[in-house]
């Protein structure tokens, strides 16, 4: 990774979170948030930003010099009591605190049951295995996702099949799914990537028609909603991540959720050495009922999660409203195309704030140069994912002993696989257009959004001179 790139996990610190001060229109509130801000937060007028000066990359003054909201957030006076109780108890493996966390997470999602496991990747593996996805099966996935989505499929011995995205929403395109269904297809993994909900209604219709399981990868979409129903609760299972950068951060952690008791019983057994559901942790004499492994959550992770969960709703509202406001401020800048939400989305949660960059409307300024110019203005940003369907880890799996036993030779021809799974819309996002801002940047006041928008406008105003700089 270049030293000039901003990693999602390299969050820049800020001293404290402040009020939003947003004065949003009803339309923006409908898109970005469920409830309006308190009256006191609606008083601020938009901050006037000087966008006519010389770009910082060319020697001018940056738009922003301050820091961004700290992430993850920890408040000792509010957060440490439960954690210290757990540490001092000596009960550190799975116990009552994990059960409490699972109950609260299920309640937050409006789902019957939740099972906490070591991370989101293994949450996907647990769900896939307990929906009987195995070697020889195919699982439909989007190419615009974190590697874990596909790694989980490979861990079961199944074959990922990539379906291209709708570039306006960054989500898997339901219109392209049925063409990729074969007799081997057993499941679809829609990914609510960036915290923006996928088109679950169409996906569920297709899955029902073809008798396919649906595992929602909601690892970036805590509390996102479609028609006021939380994502992760539409399919057979939903999977979440609590990794340090996530909107609900624990350091590491994940969860499987479902309304299916028998499925959840199997998931519990699988992550506890295959012992029967409800077995006491540490029991060795009862005998296991299935092949399993050890993916158990710890008490101190659960204590951290319970503390973080208390402010998740408020933070989600802040992100949603700030994202809607920022979108309104940048949508008319030539060459900037913000995300689009599906009509039935009642809440997006913006683990990342995405927009598309059109080089031709910035005087031909390459995306990499745009990113560097925006960073110089004090706005951290990145280009996001690399293309996934052509990465060598797939070929590594295909050349393994097990895959060679489970699949015919022609299915393991990597060059043929790449050609068959080509996703041109995804390629354009990855290689030319996508720009991300991290979720912590949406936790500050409205003036932060004005500075982001002003910085983008300033780069646009200086695009001709910045392009000349790239030729030197």
List keywords for this structure.
472 residues, alpha/beta, Aspartate Aminotransferase, domain 1, Aspartate Aminotransferase, domain 2, 7-stranded mixed beta sheet, 3-stranded antiparallel beta sheet, disordered N terminus
Please specify the SSE layout and strand pairing:
Layout: H1 26-32, H2 76-89, H3 96-109, E1 113-117, H4 120-130, E2 138-141, H5 147-155, E3 159-162, E4 165-166, E5 171-172, E6 185-188, H6 200-210, E7 213-217, E8 225-226, E9 229-230, E10 237-241, E11 254-258, H7 261-270, H8 299-309, H9 312-330, E12 336-338, E13 345-347, E14 352-357, H10 367-376, H11 392-398, H12 401-406, H13 414-420, H14 424-433, E15 434-438, H15 446-461, H16 463-470
Parallel strand pairs: 2-3, 2-6, 6-7, 7-10
Antiparallel strand pairs: 1-11, 4-5, 8-9, 8-13, 10-11, 12-14, 14-15
Commentary on this structure:
- The structure is a single chain.
- The chain has 472 residues and is α/β, with parallel strands linked by helices.
- It has two domains: 26-72 and 311-385 and 429-470, Aspartate Aminotransferase, domain 1; 76-310, Aspartate Aminotransferase, domain 2 (3-Layer(aba) Sandwich).
- It is 36% helix and 12% strand.
- It contains 16 helices and 15 strands.
- The chain has helices spanning 26-32, 76-89, 96-109, 120-130, 147-155, 200-210, 261-270, 299-309, 312-330, 367-376, 392-398, 401-406, 414-420, 424-433, 446-461, 463-470; strands spanning 113-117, 138-141, 159-162, 165-166, 171-172, 185-188, 213-217, 225-226, 229-230, 237-241, 254-258, 336-338, 345-347, 352-357, 434-438.
- The strands form four sheets. It has a seven-stranded mixed β-sheet with strand order 1-11-10-7-6-2-3, sandwiched between helices.
- The two termini are 23 Å apart.
- Mean pLDDT is 91; it is low at 1-30 and 32-41.
């Amino acid at each position: 990774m270049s030293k000039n790139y901003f990693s999602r996990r390299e969050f820049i610190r800020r001293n404290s979170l402040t009020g939003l001060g947003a004065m949003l229109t009803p339309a923006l509130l409908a898109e970005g948030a469920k409830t309006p801000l308190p009256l006191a937060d609606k008083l601020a007028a938009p901050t006037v930003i000087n966008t006519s000066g010389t770009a910082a990359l060319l020697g001018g003054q940056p738009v922003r010099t301050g820091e961004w909201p700290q992430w993850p957030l920890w408040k000792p006076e509010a957060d440490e009591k439960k954690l210290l109780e757990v540490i001092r108890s000596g009960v550190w493996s799975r116990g009552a605190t994990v059960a409490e966390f699972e109950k609260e997470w299920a309640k937050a999602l409006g789902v019957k049951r939740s099972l906490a496991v070591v991370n989101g990747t293994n949450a996907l593996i647990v769900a896939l295995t307990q929906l009987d996805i195995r070697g020889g099966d195919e699982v439909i996935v989007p190419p615009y996702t974190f590697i874990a989505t596909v790694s989980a499929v490979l861990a079961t011995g199944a074959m990922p099949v990539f379906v291209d995205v709708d570039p306006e929403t960054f989500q898997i395109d339901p219109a392209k799914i049925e063409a990729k269904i074969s007799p081997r297809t057993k499941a679809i993994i829609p990914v609510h990537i960036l915290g923006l909900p996928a088109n679950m209604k169409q996906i569920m219709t297709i899955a029902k028609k073809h008798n396919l399981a649906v595992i929602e990868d909601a690892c970036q979409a805590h509390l996102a909603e479609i028609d006021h129903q939380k994502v992760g609760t539409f399919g057979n299972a939903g999977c979440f991540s609590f990794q340090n950068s996530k909107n609900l951060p624990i350091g590491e952690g994940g969860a499987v959720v479902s309304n299916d008791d028998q499925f959840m019983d199997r998931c519990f057994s699988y992550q506890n050495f295959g012992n029967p559901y409800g077995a006491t942790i540490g029991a060795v004499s009862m005998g296991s009922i299935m092949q399993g492994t050890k993916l158990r959550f710890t008490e101190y992770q659960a204590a951290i999660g319970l503390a973080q969960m208390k402010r998740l709703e408020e933070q989600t509202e802040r992100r949603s409203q700030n994202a809607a406001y920022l979108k309104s401020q940048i949508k008319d800048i030539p060459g900037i195309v913000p995300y689009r939400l599906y009509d039935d989305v009642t809440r997006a949660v913006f683990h990342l704030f995405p927009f598309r960059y059109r080089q031709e409307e910035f005087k031909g300024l390459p995306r990499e140069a745009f990113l560097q110019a925006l960073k110089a203005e004090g706005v951290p940003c990145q280009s996001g994912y690399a293309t996934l369907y052509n990465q060598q880890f797939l070929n590594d799996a295909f050349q393994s002993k097990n895959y060679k036993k489970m699949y015919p030779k022609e299915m393991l021809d990597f060059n043929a696989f790449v050609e068959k799974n080509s996703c041109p819309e995804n390629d354009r996002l990855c290689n030319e257009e996508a720009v991300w801002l991290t979720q912590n940047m949406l936790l500050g006041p409205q003036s932060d959004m004005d500075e982001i928008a002003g910085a983008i406008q300033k780069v646009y105003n200086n695009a001709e001179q910045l392009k000349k700089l790239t030729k030197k």
